[in-house]
């Protein structure tokens, strides 16, 4: 189901026949599946959880479960919550850098508590999101997205090379040909399928690349299915699995990213209505989408899930198929919820060797940086804007790379200063407001 359907199912309330709706719903899941589970694997690793262990499996389950639940908030809606549009929600890469840093230094309890509070604040933003958009022009949002991508790329290279001893990999094998052959298989297969095929296969290129790398890793003896055999077929969910631990610095850092995520969701909502129905998004749709973002993030945090946001790649599917039906994406949400309730699926994903994941995230994280550059392409590159870009990136990435440069700052301020995203956003916003426009 990939052909553009002119004039058919252009209203969000239209319902395609089930034989057409189910494949389309699965297509939405395939396009976002790999990107949805990857952040949980990375944050779990940063927190020191056993690679492939039950705790990591649980976080992966929650990523799938609450991506589905957050998507239902968008497509079905509850009161003012939800855009009632075909918007697919998933675990956000934007939070990975901040949450990995918090989890590594203060623990998952602090990180997830920050997600709960940040999600609640994100929810409140829905009431006046339109009034805040002026603070986040393309210059600021593009810089933040670019900083996220640049921060994450070294993580991708580390994974592709085999990780490190902290991930239960042999340190002496780091960078070996075996690891790189697996990672490059993922990259090559994904690129070939993305650009030399069409439709569902092209949309699921990264997922298929991961499967190809996984198969090669299995043939090379890098895969253990011990955890899969021990995992149950069905399980419940645990409220506050790591407790409730408040840290002001962590909350501020996560909240700043929540604001950026809210602005991204506004853009995705506009893009969805333009791609599927040829119109702009209404104020109610934008507010509803923001409410759903925040509510999904807060509830996910309660049960061990990471923050959710709208997935831009699924906007492309709406534009490609021309089918605007929200019920199609609802089917995809139900598939994700089902996967999230089956621990064996999470265990299979958790058994993926780091080089396989590394090959996938080389592409994914690179695309995050490229998305930032794409947003910045809308900005006129005069002296003023180039200075803002230079100083913001230097502050954000520089302090993250050399955290000892601010080792004497108080804990809260140090957490913010070394998070990459927060200083980049803050410096960009302040300079954009303070520096005069050039004619």
UniProtKB/TrEMBL annotation:
Listed GO CC annotations: plasma membrane
Pfam family, one: Xan_ur_permease
Domain of life: Bacteria
GO MF, one annotated term: xanthine transmembrane transporter activity
Residue intervals passing through the bilayer: 29-51, 57-78, 110-129, 136-157, 177-197, 204-226, 246-266, 328-350, 356-376, 388-409, 415-435
NCBIfam families cross-referenced by the UniProt entry: ncs2, NCS2_1, pbuX
Alphabetized PANTHER family for the sequence: PURINE PERMEASE C1399.01C-RELATED (PTHR42810)
Protein name according to UniProt: Purine permease
């Amino acid at each position: 189901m990939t052909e553009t359907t002119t004039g058919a199912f252009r209203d969000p309330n239209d319902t395609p026949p089930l034989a057409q709706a189910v494949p389309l719903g699965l297509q939405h899941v395939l396009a976002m599946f790999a990107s949805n589970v990857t952040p949980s694997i990375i944050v779990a690793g940063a927190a020191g959880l056993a690679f492939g262990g039950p705790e990591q499996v649980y976080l992966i389950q929650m990523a799938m479960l609450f991506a589905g639940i957050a998507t239902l908030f968008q497509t079905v809606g509850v009161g003012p919550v939800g855009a009632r549009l075909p918007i697919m929600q998933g675990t956000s890469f934007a939070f990975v850098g901040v949450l990995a840093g918090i989890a590594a230094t203060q623990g998952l309890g602090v990180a997830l508590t920050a997600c709960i509070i940040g999600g609640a604040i994100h929810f409140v933003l829905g009431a006046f999101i339109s009034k805040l958009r002026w603070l986040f022009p393309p210059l600021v949002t593009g810089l933040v997205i670019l900083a996220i991508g640049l921060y994450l790329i070294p993580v991708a290279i580390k994974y592709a090379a085999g990780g490190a001893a902290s991930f239960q990999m042999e340190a002496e094998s780091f960078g070996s040909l075996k690891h790189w052959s697996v990672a490059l298989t993922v990259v090559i297969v994904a690129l070939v399928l993305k650009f030399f095929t069409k439709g569902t296969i092209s949309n699921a290129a990264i997922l298929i690349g991961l499967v190809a790398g996984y198969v090669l890793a299995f043939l090379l003896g890098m895969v253990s299915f011990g955890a899969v055999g021990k995992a149950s077929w069905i399980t419940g969910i645990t409220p506050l699995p790591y407790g409730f631990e408040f840290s002001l610095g962590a909350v501020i850092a996560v909240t700043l990213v929540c604001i950026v995520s809210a602005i991204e969701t506004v853009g995705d909502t506009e893009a969805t209505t333009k791609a599927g129905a040829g119109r702009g998004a209404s104020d109610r749709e934008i507010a509803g989408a923001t409410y759903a973002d925040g509510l999904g993030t807060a509830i996910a945090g309660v049960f061990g899930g990471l923050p959710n946001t709208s997935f831009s790649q699924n906007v492309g599917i709406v534009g490609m198929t021309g089918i605007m039906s929200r019920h199609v994406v609802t089917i995809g949400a139900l598939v994700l919820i089902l996967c999230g309730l089956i621990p064996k699926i999470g265990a299979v994903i958790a058994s993926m060797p780091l080089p396989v994941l590394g090959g996938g995230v080389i592409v994914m994280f690179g695309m995050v940086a490229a998305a930032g550059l794409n947003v910045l392409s809308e900005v006129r590159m005069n002296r003023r804007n180039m200075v803002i870009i230079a100083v913001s990136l230097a502050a954000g990435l520089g302090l993250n790379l050399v955290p000892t440069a601010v080792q004497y700052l108080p804990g809260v301020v140090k957490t913010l200063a070394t998070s990459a995203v927060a200083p980049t956003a803050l410096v960009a916003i302040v300079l954009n407001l303070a520096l005069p426009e050039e004619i």
